[in-house]
Amino acid sequence: VIKVYVWNSKGEPLYYDDLKIELWTPVEQAKGTDAPPGYRKMGKIYENGFEDPTLPYVVKTPVASGKQAYNLTKEQEYSPALRQWGSELDVKIEKDDYLKITFAANRMADYLDPNSNSFLSVNLKSNTSTKDIHRHFSIEDQLRAEGGQVRGVWKTMVYWVHFPKGVEPENQLAVYLRKPKTSSADNLFIDDLKVEVWRKVSTGTSK
User: Any residues with CB less than 8 A from the CB of 159 and at least 6 apart, and which?
Assistant: First the structure.
């Protein structure tokens, strides 16, 4: 049974027109899991399976792996994060490197609430604000683009973030997940957050 309807949760007047439902044949699309051409993994700079029992907002069910996952709520707003100076990173981020950021996501809901907004945030702070980088990627938008979220099913989210100028030792890098306080009350469960550095490798010329 497929149900399609307009739902007004606030009970206020809502006007709409030209409701249309179309059936499209699916086509093969890139899922974002492939590395950019010529790039290979240099190493991992962050991994969090949220197994620390002292962490707030961890849950024992549902989990993608291990014994715990993280419940991203608007009350907490921010997840545990990678937050390090460039000089502290296990792998230096050089010019034109990519960060590959992956995590498992699970929304225990029957539909994607249009008022639900969760983001992956990648921030780079420098000595001058003109060089700062602030990038935010909608988790819900990617779920919609990949066919939505099946209730109780974990989906692997993959993001590639380009760093055209690299990360200097005095720069501070932050990678975290955020659910704004203005978002709807539904929860997003997160597990297995991982950040890797990928670099373009020159093949060279053999003689």
Answer: 32, 100, 101, 102, 120, 137
Check whether the bond before 62 is cis (ω within 30° of 0): yes
Question: If you write DSSP's letter for every residue of 121-149 in order, what string do you get?
Answer: EEEEE-SSGGG-EEEEEEHHHHHHHTT--
The conformational region for residue 9 under phi > 0 = left, psi -120 to 50 = alpha, else beta, is alpha
The residue among 83, 67, 108, 89 whose CA lies nearest residue 169 is 89
Q: What angle do CA 181, 173, 186 make, to 5 degrees?
A: 20
pLDDT at 33: 64
- Token output for 130: 């003109």
Cα–Cα distance, 117 to 159 (Å, whole number):
17
Could you tell me if 171 and 86 are in contact, meaning their C-beta atoms sit under 8 angstroms apart?
yes
Residue type, 205: T
**Closest Cα partner for 81 from 52, 48, 114, 49?**
48
Mean pLDDT, each 10-residue run in order, the chain (207 residues): 69 73 38 78 97 94 95 89 94 94 84 75 78 83 71 87 89 93 80 96 57
Q: pTM (2 decimals)? A: 0.77
